[in-house]
């Protein structure tokens, strides 16, 4: 079972979510190469705390990462 999700933001807008840190890190690098002037951030949220972050929760749910 997943313990945390990794969220990728571009200029404070959620752009993607991953359940694997290595893949999320690679995608951050690619996004930064394509958009060098943008602020690209990667942050994690534990599954147990995700309900405290409604935007991230909905984003992850829309992408099927919270399906049991």
Give an overview in words.
The chain is an alpha+beta fold. The chain has helices at residues 21-34, 54-62; strands at residues 4-10, 13-18, 40-46.
Question: Summarize this, please?
Answer:
The chain has 68 residues and is of the alpha+beta class. It contains 2 helices and 3 strands, in the order ββαβα.
- What's the overall average pLDDT, rounded? 93
The dominant shape is globular
Which strands sit side by side, in order, in the main sheet? 2-1-3
The number of helices is 2
Biggest pleated-sheet summary? 3 strands, antiparallel
What is the beta-strand fraction? 25-35%
End-to-end gap: 9 Å
| Low-confidence runs of at least 5 consecutive residues | none
Radius of gyration: 12 Å
Structure class: alpha+beta
SSE order in H/E notation? EEHEH
Measured as a percent range, the helix fraction is: 25-40%
Strand tally is 3
